[in-house]
Amino acid sequence: MAIKIFADGANLQGMLQMDQMGVDGFTTNPSLMKKGGVQDYRDFAFKVLAAIPQKSISFEVFADDGEGMEAEAREIATWGPNVFVKIPCLRTDGTPTYGLIKRLSDAGVRVNVTAVFTKEQVKAIVEALNPEVPGYISIFAGRLSDAGNDPIPVIEYAVAITRDRPLTEVLWASTREVYNIIQAEQLGADIITVPNNVLDKWFKRGRTPMELSVATVQGFAKDIATLNFRILP
Asked: Catalytic: 47?
């Protein structure tokens, strides 16, 4: 496939497993680090980078103020040539971070702009990212869908306005199911980041609809055999 598949997680063993499976890169975030039980951010990051030195890996800033975010971003950017720094497109009070994104990108920092949900945000981010420096626009398609919104128009818009910017890549984030990978590919997204439980299904894909139908009925039959239910007297 043309689309690059990144593993989304913050568990070293899981990342190493997905590296061996052949994913193209990795993304992490504070929520995933909490879920993965990470105790020391720098120690975790350097272990990951030592084990996976060649593939793109995104690490997110933790600060919420502009000065703190910039200081952390510049520090994270020194950790390795394959590092992308994740910057939320806004702060917790809703203030956009486009000025910070522009300063970092113009300084050569590879920025992964995260928590993107709208076309307006995409447009502002494209204007902020330096076209000569690699950068990602992470659109949270899954969370849009969870709230009853169609993510497709946002992805399509991002793909269209970055078409002449090969270093600015559109990333489908918050993947929910295997078919999202097919959707992202069809829409022209450059990258999709996928949690390990969905990647497991992706690597095991291949059964036909008829095979799935038979397997489903067989599963029902297996459960029926353990219930000892009777419908007719």
From this structure: no
Closest CA to 168 of 98, 88, 111, 101: 111
**Would you say 3 and 25 are in contact if contact means Cβ atoms under 8 Å apart?**
no
pLDDT in tens, 170-204: 999 999 999 999 999 999 999 999 999 999 999 88
Cβ atoms 121, 145 nearer than 8 A: no
- Phi, psi dihedrals of residue 160, rounded to the nearest 5°: -65, -45
Residue 150: exposure state from Cβ atoms within 10 A (0-12, 13-18, ≥19): exposed
Indicate left, alpha or beta for 111 from its phi (over 0: left) and psi (-120 to 50: alpha): beta
Q: pTM of the predicted model, to two decimals?
A: 0.92
- Mean pLDDT for the chain overall: 96
| Rounded (5°) CA angle 61-63-68 | 100
- Residue 66 CB-density burial (10 A; 0-12 exposed, 13-18 middle, 19+ buried): middle
Q: Locate 84 and state its tokens.
A: 């992308």
Give me the catalytic one of 35, 55, 86, 201: 86
Read off the pLDDT of residues 35-83 as tens digits, 9 standing for 90 and up: 889 999 999 999 999 999 999 999 999 999 999 999 999 999 999 999 9
Q: Which structure tokens are listed for 37?
A: 């039980």
